[in-house]
């Protein structure tokens, strides 16, 4: 009886709770049964403390692979959110980078720009700007082929595409650096840069540009004629694509099943379930915490 009492106390349970469970199950009860009952009582008291109107029953879930995800209150928020275009960030597209990527680095494919613009329009974005050097309006040459060139004129009429300045001086073409236009507009409008270029030269120019490019660069891939940005633009621990494109997050980041053990979980960082209380702290197991406290 005392061994079970001490073990449960180390896990952070209250003494009166442990006594109530042991009196209910008996001193000969297995430690797993005692812990299961403590978890059930803990979850029950938490739900009652929150003053929830609806009565919910918490069921212990096995640690094995779960065939069906349990619907959590966080997930239901996604269906209830009504988003508007005012919450969407401005989009600045590196036209040359997108066109060359769609042309497989062999030609300037204007259709790739159209595909990227259409993808953002379908997402509800209205503030879209594409930068392309003005010399791309010239006639296509064998060493620099341009396909579907009429798309550039069409997007320019729709006030989506902007040509960066260029001119000829004594037969030599003088071209303004279009990458600087792209980064400057995106920085000033607090928008998103769509490109597979890292702009390392511009990152070294200004510290604020370096931080901005690291946090607001949206890379992409083309699968035939399908424009595909990643679902996790800043990596697996960063925001989702939907929240990355918005000024204020509207869709819960964590769609994993919440841990049925809650704060009483002893798996630490090895737990495969979601722990909202561990978002900004190291996920150490109770055993690790006890070892650290013992050393101290």
Protein architecture, described:
A 5-stranded parallel β-sheet has the order 5-3-1-8-9, sandwiched between helices. The chain has a two-stranded parallel ribbon with strand order 2-4. It contains 12 helices and 11 strands. The longest helix has 19 residues. By secondary structure, it is α/β, with parallel strands linked by helices. Strand 6 and strand 7 form a beta hairpin. It has 3 domains: 42 residues; 162 residues, Rossmann fold (3-Layer(aba) Sandwich); 41 residues, no CATH class. Helix 2 crosses helix 3 and helix 6 packs parallel to helix 7. It is elongated and about 95 Å long.
Number of domains: 3
Question: In one word, what is the shape?
Answer: elongated
Second rung of CATH, namely the architecture of the largest domain: 3-Layer(aba) Sandwich
Q: Report the top-level CATH class of the largest domain.
A: Alpha Beta
In DSSP terms, counting alpha (H) and pi (I) runs of 4 or more, how many helices?
12
Gap from first CA to last CA: 29 Å
The count of DSSP E runs of length 2 or more, i.e. the number of strands, is: 11
Q: Please list the strands of the largest sheet in the order they lie side by side.
A: 5-3-1-8-9
Helix content: 25-40%
Q: Within the CATH hierarchy, at the fold level, what is the topology of the largest domain?
A: Rossmann fold
> What would you report as the Rg, rounded to the nearest angstrom?
28 Å
């Amino acid at each position: 009886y005392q061994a079970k009492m001490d073990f449960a106390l180390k896990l952070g349970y209250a003494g009166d709770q442990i006594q109530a469970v042991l009196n209910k199950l008996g001193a000969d009860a297995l430690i797993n049964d005692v812990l299961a009952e403590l978890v059930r009582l803990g979850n029950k008291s938490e739900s009652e403390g929150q003053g929830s109107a609806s009565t919910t029953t918490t069921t212990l879930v096995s640690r094995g692979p779960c065939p069906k995800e349990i619907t959590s209150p966080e997930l239901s928020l996604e269906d209830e959110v009504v988003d508007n275009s005012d919450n969407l960030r401005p989009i600045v597209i590196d036209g040359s980078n997108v066109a060359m990527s769609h042309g497989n680095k062999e030609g300037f494919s204007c259709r790739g720009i159209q595909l990227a613009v259409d993808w953002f329009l379908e997402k509800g974005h209205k503030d879209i700007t594409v930068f392309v050097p003005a010399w791309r309006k010239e006639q296509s040459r064998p060493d620099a082929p341009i396909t579907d060139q009429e798309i550039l004129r069409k997007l320019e009429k729709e006030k989506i595409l902007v040509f960066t300045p260029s001119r000829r001086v004594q037969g030599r073409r003088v071209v303004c650096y279009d990458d600087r236009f792209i980064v400057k507009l995106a920085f000033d409008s607090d928008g998103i840069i769509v490109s597979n270029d890292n702009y390392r030269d511009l990152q070294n120019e200004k510290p604020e540009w370096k931080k901005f490019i690291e946090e607001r660069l949206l890379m992409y891939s083309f699968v035939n004629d399908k424009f595909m940005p990643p679902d996790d633009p800043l990596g697996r621990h960063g925001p989702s694509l939907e929240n990355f494109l918005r000024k204020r997050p509207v869709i819960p980041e964590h769609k994993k099943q919440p841990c049925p053990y809650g704060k009483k979980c002893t798996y630490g960082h090895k737990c495969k379930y979601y722990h909202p209380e561990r978002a900004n702290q190291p996920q150490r197991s109770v055993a690790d915490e006890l070892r650290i406290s013992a050393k101290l």
